[in-house]
Design goal:
Helix 1 runs antiparallel to helix 5 and helix 8 crosses helix 9. The chain is α+β, with helices and mostly antiparallel strands. It has two domains: 217 residues, no CATH class; 175 residues, Methyltransferase, Cobalt-precorrin-4 Transmethylase, Domain 2, CATH 3.30.950.30. It starts with a helix and ends in an 18-residue tail after the last helix. 35% of the residues lie in helices and 25% in strands.
Length: 466
């Protein structure tokens, strides 16, 4: 696989992971917003419908409301003084503690007029750990009221737990009821038993509150103020909707997107690691040098500018080093050039090269000379980006190691005497110039092609000496 194609795959993978993460986050926010708007619209429509049925002017006139209203599943209507006007689908904790604004004897019917102008027939039945209050408005009082009170009260059982599980259909349709424990906590209620609760905080405008949890369910709560003709706040309608199913779907969608996003990031990171491992030049330490031999990633050179055969300085030797560096730059994996070793790995050192330097005959002078040669051949930027020189001592002799990374573009050395049209590459343990069709084919595969190389998945290794 060509380096440019690997780079493209990495870029596409990273871009895909980022775009999917952004899209998943955007989808979650959009769905949350849509859910919020739908719930708000539904609850507001229900609350405004109830407000229209109440039609408050100068007083609470509830006859029309009682006859016509078909409220949502869960709601309550409370006056500014804390009098409960109506409730349905009561949720534990929705209204909290209550007080009774009337005197009573257990299991004896009595009449009561609420502060919203309604006349009630009420009946209080004692439980072991609380009470049940039954009530029917005067205008719909059934015959044989005493017997009906007794019969319906008996259906609530003997304790609060049993009473709260009494099905609504088991109680006569004319009756409203409320269940209160010994602590004064309202545990269940259907209808408008005229009890007192804490004075409510009435918002100035209709408002959707944050989602609240009741038991194992999640509910959205909408508050609709009730105003007189003069604009005074006289009560509040509270409407609730169970959104547990919607939240569960939203949560599952978020988890799915998260898992997919994590998978994409994992694949991207894994590919990046593979990519970096493949393009990273193997590190060589001085201790490894005695067991190395030349390979596609390792090359030995006896000197930079000293001809051992003729035993004299020879600037032509620099061209050999330049060609080797070019071969590594144009390779798929880069490599290491070690100066101061002969072809068999025998340690020669850099002393002969030091002797050719006029001003500083030492490591610093050699490094400067090497840098000048490479900069002249490949440019300052290429040297800074893809080459790193270091020194070490072996057998009391100094060696220079040049670590060369694979270049992102073909490198043609700008050195006199080196053929400009030749593309130097590594073939095994040798550096070979390519030209013509061979150079074009290699160029396409290395930098611009998409053909697969089985060796891509095999990390280059340093071959030990035989």
């Amino acid at each position: 696989m060509s380096r440019s194609f690997r780079s493209l795959v990495w870029t596409v993978g990273l871009a895909s992971a980022i775009l999917f993460s952004a899209a998943a986050s955007g989808q979650y926010l959009f769905l949350s917003y849509q859910l919020h708007q739908r719930i708000r619209d539904n609850l507001q429509a229900s609350a405004q419908g109830m407000l229209g049925d109440i039609a408050f002017e100068d007083s609470w006139r509830l006859q029309g409301y009682r006859r016509t209203t078909e409220g949502p599943d869960v709601y309550s209507v409370v006056t500014e003084t804390g009098t409960l006007v109506d409730t349905h689908g009561y949720l534990p904790g929705m209204l909290g503690h209550v007080s009774l604004p009337f005197l009573f004897d257990f299991d004896r019917p009595f009449k009561f007029s609420s502060d919203v102008g309604e006349n009630w027939n009420l009946y209080v039945h004692k439980l072991r750990d609380g009470i049940v209050i039954l009530g029917v408005r005067a205008e719909i009082t059934p015959e044989d009221l005493q017997e009906r009170f007794i019969a319906n009260a008996s259906r609530f059982g003997s304790n609060v737990a049993d009473a709260t599980h009494t099905p609504e259909r088991a109680i006569h349709e004319s009756f409203d009821w409320a269940i209160v424990d010994l602590n004064g906590t309202l545990r269940w209620a259907i209808g408008g038993i005229p009890m007192k609760i804490a004075v409510p905080e009435i918002p100035d405008t209709p408002a959707l509150s944050p989602v609240c949890q009741v038991g194992s369910g999640y509910y959205s709560v909408f508050f609709q103020p009730v105003r007189s003709r003069s604009g005074r706040k006289v009560g509040v309608i509270t409407v609730l909707e169970d959104i547990s199913a919607e939240r569960r779907v939203l949560h599952q969608s978020a988890i799915f997107n998260l898992l997919v996003g994590v998978s994409l990031w994992f694949i991207t990171v894994a590919f990046a690691i593979l990519y970096l491992r493949r393009t990273r030049v193997p590190e060589i330490t001085c201790a490894q040098i005695p067991v190395l031999q030349e390979s596609d990633t390792v090359e030995f050179k006896s000197s930079l500018r000293w001809n051992d055969r003729e035993n004299r300085p020879d600037r032509e030797m620099e061209k050999v080093v330049v060609k080797t560096v070019a071969g590594f730059l144009n390779s798929y994996t880069g490599g290491n050039l070690i100066i101061g070793l002969d072809d068999k790995g025998q340690v020669l050192g850099l002393q002969a090269d030091y002797s050719t330097l006029k001003t500083r005959s030492n490591r610093d002078g050699f490094e400067q000379a090497l840098r000048n040669v490479l900069v002249n051949a490949f440019g300052e930027g290429s040297c800074a980006a893809w080459m790193k020189a270091s020194f070490c001592s072996l057998q009391d002799k100094e060696l220079c190691m040049i670590k060369i990374s694979p270049a992102t573009e073909p490198m043609y050395p700008k050195e006199k005497g080196i053929e400009d049209s030749a593309l130097y590459v590594r073939l095994g343990n040798t550096t070979t110039p390519l030209s013509g069709r061979e150079a074009v084919a290699y160029f396409r595969e290395r930098w611009g092609g998409v053909s697969l190389r089985r060796s891509y998945f095999r990390r280059p290794t340093m071959q030990p000496a035989a």
